[in-house]
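Chain A, query sequence.
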Amino acid sequence: MYRLIAILLALICIGTATFFPYSKDDVLVNALKYSHLNIPQNEGLHRFALSKVKQIASALYRPTIYPKVIDLTGIGSSVKQPMYLTDSPFHIKVANTEQLFAAIKAAEPGEHIVLQPGIYVINQPQVPILTNGEKGAPITISAVQLGEVRLLMSGQEGFAVKARYWKFENLIFVGAKGHDGAIEHAIHLSGDADFVEISNNQFINFNAHIKSNGAPNSRGELDFPDGLLIANNDIYNQWKRNTKSPASPIDIVGGDSVIVKNNFIADFGKYGRQGYGTTYGAFMKGGGINGLFDNNIVMCEWRLPHTSPLDIRVGLSFGNGGTGSQFCADGKCEYEHVNGTMRNNTILNCVNDVGIYLNKAKNTLVENNAVRSSLGVDIRFEQSSADIVGNIIEGRVNQRNGASASLSDNIFE
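Chain A, predicted structure.
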């Protein structure tokens, strides 16, 4: 008798999809999350009913997982022809970590620090970069060709960039294994680190591989890195991060005209608190303006399967989960982002949540993206407004908590 009652309760829970303004998949995914979280905390009939909810929802929710092998032409890093470097006093060749640090400390505008082939072990908590390059004369750190140089990092962050006009190219950044809670960033930009370019690199095994945020200036006001270019990089992890820290590969707080394009971003799950981990492939928040996500491929699941319904991975976001007012450009965070654009991106396998999330994102254009194997798109809070144009979406567009959106020429599958 109890078994029959439990099964009926489970069917009623699943059947509510018909009566709520959500898709069936929304209800199934939320049923999976709720039951997975609460089964261990219950016993008897309640536990049995929750187990049946999970069993039935699992049977009904069968998202397609797109393959590990996809066409990455023009996306991510690539081995190009070696750089041709003439003999010049501006070309500074380094062959070990000590020489690299010395070259960074002594760098001048227009110099190119060229790492010779090998592995460079960086154990320091951070490597500060404080000298400004100049427009037309950036300071570059690179290998001659991608694959020749690996930077093995075990400190909290690798390069801590607080200066303008630097460029990082043809490098492989690798976070050491066994230190998930301590290895945060490969590159951390802050304050006046404007016009930094990060291109044709690989970033493997960090929490937030590339991080950008504000820092106080001499007047006590926050300066944010502006005009950043993050292009043609591979950014992923080889295991789920076991950390309570934010674990989103590209984490941008504030800033004007940040461009993130042609990157391959994948496998960014984390365990987090009580196994409940929410991560994003890339986001911009904190009062930023004029941000652009263009022609990226984001695979929430590539080689690392989701481990539970609470392994929540979202593809791209303007707004993320929000920002404390003290960290925002305007000191208020009325808007997380204004005038942002997402176009030509492919977002795959975000099976436990949405592929695109807009949170207090004003005047956003979401155009010509393919969002597959997720719940679709969420637009949240009355501060959010968006034009959703010409996208292919497996799922729905959900306007929540007073958000507004205009939809045209989209294909829903």
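The longest strand covers residues 277-285. The chain has two domains: 2-60, 91-412.
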